Amino acid sequence: MAKTITNYFDELRGTRVWRSVFRSGSGSSTLHRALAIQQNVFLHLFSTKVRTRMLSFSATWYLGTLTLGTFLILVSTGIPLMFYYHPSVPQAYADTKDLQFVVSSGLFLRNLHRWSAHAMVFLVFAHMFKVFYRGAYRPPREFNWVIGVVLLLITLLLSYTGYLLPWDQLAFWAITVGSNIASAVPVMGNKVHFLMLGGNVVNANALLRFYVLHCMILPLVAILFVAIHFWRIRKDGGLYAHQSEPRTVAARSVPAKGVPVP
Amino acid sequence: MSGPTPKDFIAGMDSNARKSPTRVVFVTRRTSAQVKVTAEDQVQTYPELLFRAVVAIEVLAIALVSMALLFNAPLEGIADPSHTPNPAKAPWYFLGLQEMLHYFPPVVAGVLVPGLVVMALIVIPYFNINVEAEGLFLKDRERRVLIFYVVTAALCLFLLLFDVYVALVPALIVAGFMALAAQSSPQSASAFRRGLAAKPLSFWIMTWFLFELTVLTAVGTFFRGPGWSWVLPWRS
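YS: structure for the whole thing
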């Protein structure tokens, strides 16, 4: 049975239509497997090979992968949530109520979106600390660490802007408390506060701003930076692995003879 | 250094650089880390890594879907600007900041501290001291121990002055471990103390930051009630 499915799949991969879509074609040779990564617009961000050591759970705890997972879940639950939501006052709250009680699976969608959002914030922090304690920020990976910090801030902003959208008491006052901090910025605090909310208090303008940022601007910026983040892993020589780094090598004594011995 | 050698190669016999060039790499401390010296076991990203990533994401999805089925997201009454809940709390990841706002003026707790934290995070990889990551007290010990005690005393005094006992406790615990590290060396009997002695400055600062972040966020989330007063979450 399994063999039959595999055969069908191999046949499918050999068809003219498949070959026209996926440039790598069928086959399970090392070359084909390398091409499967290298010839794909999304996968070519990654290198075709990876150190065996880096596959172990202890090396990364898969925290970066899991963060990507939460992001994918958030996009795929967020889009259906947008179908049932109007970013206006007081319709936003009524829509959230409808999602809770009227829309089929609306409650599940919202639950999944919210818990995944919390998980993403947590995972981004965990990822950062794991990378730090492994020393994986070391050259040549400095800039990828900086991109990581940017992604941390984008994640916090994504979560924060989404927090207002249900337009309930929890949302309203959390954003009020948070946005009041912006007023404390020296000299231009009130201007920043006004720009952020589109008014002096959290109101319908703020809801619309947060909605646009949450559903459009920030996800696009996040995708852009995630792409750079992944691409830089390849460019910087793959995931950081202690022993392969020259710092460790330099610590060893350089062999006295410059001639390779067979 | 090693690599495929031609069959007719005789080690150490040929000195004609034009005929059989030999590349000798001198790796110094400041050499770019992009130089790869050791060849190590590698596997194809497809399927080895991709399939593992997919499995990891599927496990995550199962966990989150289960959670979504079991627990409902909170939804309170409609937003009412005239009715302020007490306490009004920010999202959980900002509660560490909100806890600090309780002690310090907004310009310090809300602007200066987060700004400095973000800047500190960004510059970590650009300091050679972090890149080399040598044990904090291994070199120039007397002077560094003195600086450590002065800085710790100043920090604790500052926190005491503002009654920030919540932040004082983690600071003292980390400082205790640092003091132990100062008394340890790579020759210490226990592996734990040898480990402490090898920890660089960035490790201590980051660990302190992680500890403070966790404690302040937990306090803000669970131990703060009406008027930001101290409450016990199991007695409500």
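YS: worth flagging: Chain A touches chain B through 101 residues (CB under 8 Å).
IM: good catch. Also The mean pLDDT of chain A is 89.
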